[in-house]
Amino acid sequence: MHEPHKCHRLQLCDLFPPGHAIQHLMWQDHRQIKMLSHVDASNLYSRWVTYFNVAKRVCEVAVWALQADRRGPDDGRGASARGEGTSCTELGINLTLRLGLLDLADWQDEEKLRDGKAYRLKLPWDTELLWYPHFMSETEADELEDLRITMTYFFQTPSGVTQETVNRKGQARICSEQHAQNKAHSAKDNSRDKSQLYVSEKMDSWSRALMHRVEHASESVFNAIWFNHYRDGTVTIHWHSDGNEGLGPDPIIASLSLGATRDFAFKSKREWRGLRKANDGSMFHSNNIIHITLPLFHGSLCVMGKNSQRHWLHAVPAMEGIHRERTNLTFRFWALEGFETIDAAEAQADTQRQFRLRLTPSQRLAQRRARPVILDAPRDAKTTVEEMLRRLENLLPPGLGEVGMVGMAGGWWG
Ligand SMILES: O=C(O)CCC(=O)C(=O)O
Ligand SMILES: [Fe+2]
């Protein structure tokens, strides 16, 4: 293993009976192996996790004891698109507060995956996919596709050749300032092959606005957008999960599709034992790998939520008869690109970045389909969490009640 989180994420050590002395063998570099005790490896692991939580700077805030929201199901467009909710500009928050609703669907409800509605799709191993088949209107998606085509992004081929033109299969990135700095740092370090670093653009107003909108729908925060360009149906992405250590312990990745409708194939890494519904409605015992396919329409958003990289693989398989190109924008949170060790990462940690707040519905509300909301906290350094929560309470829409802090990742220094 290169990093302790690789095995700690899988909790392999828990499989051993107590009383065993466990040693971890880790690559020091590509020639040497070092040995670590289980305690030391656990400590390193918790430093990684803390590093990610601090880097994201998200405070979890629960909203509880509330009545159900009166608004209709969320289509992922967010409140500003609908002009609803309570404006929090007084707090310097540029997002409208809104407790939206998202219908639940079980992965076996095949017809729901094709009915054109948005769902929180529940899968085995406590996995979630958020599916917005019409995240963007046709016109908006057309405009974004046009914008993408006219932008002079450098698309890099998998072989590392960078071309200004869109080629057979291209990738490009847009990322935050900090992310770019880390990447530059990595290039300077010469710790990686420079040809493997993708060309990246800085965030600007349209990409930031789009990212915020996707964050809202994804219930998560991001700092980078990656583009994948598929010239036609012969261009594919094979089975993989996005589990690179730069993405943190359980990354959430949102994927916005433009252009040709291609299938998104999702399959479990292991067999699932349970009762399944047959086509004729009868039930049978299954002990198989689960396969799920979603049609990635022009303007659709598929969010690979919690546990989706841990327990599942995804792919965009080849499709005959597709001559139209497709561009996919994946939204990710990168905190570690360019760092070889946690010491180096911690030394470069950005403590100045703005806090985000995730207002999480209480369990009772969540059962009623209420969903979390992401807010930017005010930049005012004097505001403490308690004060922020008190002010938020006053701004919550009528009937929403109290807010309270459930757990805080990363702290809030006022
Ligand atoms: O094109 C897609 O929808 C998927 C892309 C993907 O899986 C990736 O970039 O890791
Ligand atoms: Fe992927």
UniProtKB/TrEMBL annotation:
InterPro entries referenced in this protein's UniProt entry, alphabetically: AlkB-like (IPR027450), AlkB-like_sf (IPR037151), ALKBH3 (IPR032854), Oxoglu/Fe-dep_dioxygenase_dom (IPR005123)
Ranges of residues in domain Fe2OG dioxygenase: 217-335
Source superkingdom: Eukaryota
Pfam families: 2OG-FeII_Oxy_2
Protein name per the record: Fe2OG dioxygenase domain-containing protein
